[in-house]
Amino acid sequence: GINAEYGVKMSRVLSKNLFDFKLTGELDDDVKALEAKWEKMKVASPEAKKMADRMKELEQKHDEASNMEYIKLMRTALDAYAKLFSENEAFNYGREQTTMTTLKVPTTHDGEFNVPVEVYTPKDLENETKRAACVYAHGGG
């Protein structure tokens, strides 16, 4: 299709099956340590435990007020979780070695809207014209 923002005809991307990884279900040691730190923080903080318990309650409800309360609690929890990432040496090194740019992809499936897309490129590949891509998408929210 045509990318409206850039006016460029773009052909559909075809997979070259470059990646054939079998998932093993094992976490790296640094990820295990980060999760253990998170669990320890929840146990050490009665407030965090109370929040986690309330979120579990709200997950069972499907009304607007419960959804809004859940979102507020989730954002609070994510702020604390993001702080753990900001203190992680490997994460910070990766961020320093990466450039983030954005582009917008037009969609009409639920009205006309340009979906913002973040593109993360390793700095040592910025000038390469042929790079592999990993696309992650979620349903919003």
Question: What is the gist of this entry?
Answer:
The strands form 2 sheets. Strands 1-2 form a two-stranded antiparallel sheet. A two-stranded antiparallel ribbon has the order 3-4. 43% of the residues lie in helices and 17% in strands. The chain has 141 residues and is an alpha+beta fold.
What can you see in these coordinates?
The protein has about 140 residues and is an alpha+beta fold. The protein has four helices and four strands. α1 crosses α2 (about 45-60). The radius of gyration is 20 Å and the shape is extended. The two termini are about 25 Å apart.
The beta-strand count equals 4
What fraction, in percent, of the residue positions are helical? 40-55%
Overall mean pLDDT stands at: 81
Could you give the order of strands across the largest sheet? 1-2
Uncertain ranges: none
Output the radius of gyration.
Answer: 20 Å
Tell me the strand percentage band: 15-25%
- Largest sheet report: 2 strands, antiparallel
**Span between N and C termini?**
26 Å
| H/E element sequence | EEHHHHEE
Note the total helix count. Answer: 4
Secondary-structure blueprint of this entry?
Layout: E1 2-3, E2 8-9, H1 29-44, H2 46-59, H3 64-86, H4 89-96, E3 98-107, E4 113-122
Antiparallel strand pairs: 1-2, 3-4
Helix pairs in contact: 1-2, 2-3
